[in-house]
Amino acid sequence: MADIQSFDYVAAPDARVLILGSIPGVKSLQEVQYYAHPRNGFWPIMAALLGFPPSLSYPERLERLKMAGIALWDVVHRCHRPGSLDQNIAGESVEANDFSAFFRRHPRVHAIYFNGGTAETMFKRHVVRAGIPLPEHLSMTRLPSTSPANAGTPLAQKLEQWRVVMGSLRDSGCALQAQRTLQPKR
């Protein structure tokens, strides 16, 4: 597998926060699921932050993200990359996703959180420097990669740094509504 294409974004119309990866790895592409590698920390972190069981099915996990106001996507739409490592992406082959259209459809997104440094670098290189119009109020924050390739940072430490996502949702009033919605019915 060398020429690869990312998935469509996952987002409710009222999303407030966008989490961006670079492009799905081999396991994710095979499973057609974001963060499908069993050692990737993304889903355990989201489960801890949003208070859902990590054993939920993939569609249920996506629904929990949407209910919380979190959108999920990748910077890269298409590229050439042998294997799963971001460092193997051929720079000249990168085609960014259509962020202009995304922000037109999701005008309430006020924060981007990059899942690792490569996602941030690629966004700045292929979106910001390319002059793609972005919302004026948009904040951008790099978080530690949840990838198994970032094994030097323990999951608990990553979780602590990822808690800022909840702060953004709280600031927009989304987290409180999501937590109420996610409470078990009595």
From TrEMBL:
InterPro entries, per database record: Hypoxan-DNA_Glyclase (IPR026353), Uracil-DNA_glycosylase-like (IPR005122), Uracil-DNA_glycosylase-like_sf (IPR036895)
Residue ranges occupied by any Uracil-DNA glycosylase-like domain in the UniProt entry: 8-163
Domain of life: Bacteria
NCBIfam families, A to Z: hypoxanDNAglyco
Protein's name according to its UniProt entry: DNA-deoxyinosine glycosylase
